[in-house]
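Our working data are protein records whose layout never changes between entries. Instead of coordinates, the fold is spelled out as a row of discrete tokens. Here is such a record, shown just as it appears in the course material:
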Amino acid sequence: MNRLTSACLLALRQGRTYARGLHLLVGAAVGPVCVLVWPGITENLARTLAACALVPVVPLLLLGMVPGMRRAEGIQALLMLVPDDEEAIGRAPARTLSDRWRTSVWLVLRSWWGLLVASVLAQVLSVTITLAAAPAVESPRTLLGVTIPGGHRSIWYLGLVPPLLLVAFTLLVGAGKVQLALARRFLGPSTAERLADAEHRADRLLARNSLAGELHDSIGHALTVTVLQASAARELVDVDRDFVVRALAAIEETGRRAMDDLERTLDYLKEREPAARTVRPTLGDVGQLLEASRAAGVTVRARTAADVGAVPGVVSREAYRILQESLTNAMKHAPGSAVDVVLDVTGEQVSLTVTNRLVEEAPPGRGTGKGLRGLRERTALLGGRASAGAESGRWIVSARLPLRLGS
């Protein structure tokens, strides 16, 4: 009993209790409004309640077929029933016949449940008021077929008032929870909507992963090149001034490219068109990428096809990122090792191989494997194949990208 009292006192302080009660009363009012035009219908209580329950059924079923009604009921349920999980109740108009039928059934059940709760609650409150007023009224009263005597001898009736009020409030709280459960069942997202929402979430996750991969490859490469170039320039600042100038120029160009990539990514996040100068690099920019690596002190031997400009845009962009990540890994994990790059374009695919010697004395890598994982994801997204691993004392990264997507 103490636990029930504590729960009721807690609910008494919560605004959603009264909002749910109002939602119940709004549903209960539909029936009486519909039967007001019937003369003499209120002469018998049983007939009145039956009419209030049955007369609105057909209009409510037809009203539920209106697509916008589901949206209106969903918004109202969210505002007044206050669910813990807002996704449990849909706010979209009905798109299928099943959604419309569910809305129609909800409208009928809402009316019936509200009418039932309002009727029981009215009777409980009527009994409570009668017992509370009995000591002040000398004449007896008849309530629900029971005669209740009045007068000062009925003062003990006042002891029944608090429990009856507790029953009424408990009924209101419980009925609100039932109303919320019905709303979740009949106004909740349909199977098709859940699938569409899951696909939307998957697309957003894929887009976020793609952006993360873009930033990892671009900014990671820029920082690696910048660190190597700055370190080499510091060592030779008093020995080879021309090299220092070239290194600083390469740092400037690398930083500018990284800023362009960052700006393009932020433009995407802000859902605006990226500026022309922030277009993603392609295989046509491979020469600059290789020169930047060489300026960082890396020996790069490259053999590239002459017709890389004919590679389709999406394949060209992803191939550039794969090469960029491969060079970054070589510079980070095998400093001082020469890198061999072979880029071929056939009639069916782009073939890319990046090879470097394994350096046993190299410092332990601090990578997390995201770069190689992103490399494989880029390749798989285009229907290609990629591999990375050690073989005969060398680290080999190989990627094959089809020129025709889906082939």
In short: Confidence is low (pLDDT under 50) at residues 273-278. The beta strands are 141-143, 146-148, 300-304, 339-345, 349-357, 385-391, 394-402. The longest helix spans residues 191-235.
